[in-house]
Specification:
GO molecular function, one term: endonuclease activity
Shape: elongated
Protein name: DDE superfamily endonuclease
Helix content: 25-40%
Pfam families: DDE_5 (PF13546)
Keywords: Endonuclease, Hydrolase, Nuclease
Radius of gyration: 15 Å
Order of helices and strands: EEHHHEE
Structural class: alpha+beta
């Protein structure tokens, strides 16, 4: 998953997280090790990963504090004030 900051003047990649399906990847430790996935990497839903990235981005001093537009598939769990969600 990717989090990008976009303005009329351009776009910038802000963060990225690896989504691992719970039953096909996280259940197969050998497969994860072969792919270089650290053992401590836990399953997280896409909305949870998006919330983690947004929270980390908002804690960053360098990002403008204007209202960002954040593209996510499922914004039900992302109830952060002042954000505009675009469903993709």
């Amino acid at each position: 998953m990717f989090l990008a900051y976009a303005t009329p003047r351009g776009r910038a990649l802000v963060d990225r997280r690896l989504y691992l399906p719970e039953h096909s990847w996280r259940a197969d430790q050998g497969r994860c090790r072969s792919a270089g996935v650290p053992d401590e990497t836990a399953f997280a839903t896409e909305p949870a990963l998006a919330a983690q990235m947004i929270a980390a981005a908002l804690d960053t001093e360098g990002l403008p504090r204007s209202t960002p537009k954040i593209c996510v598939r499922d914004s039900r769990h992302l109830l952060l004030s002042g954000l505009v969600f675009l469903a993709s």
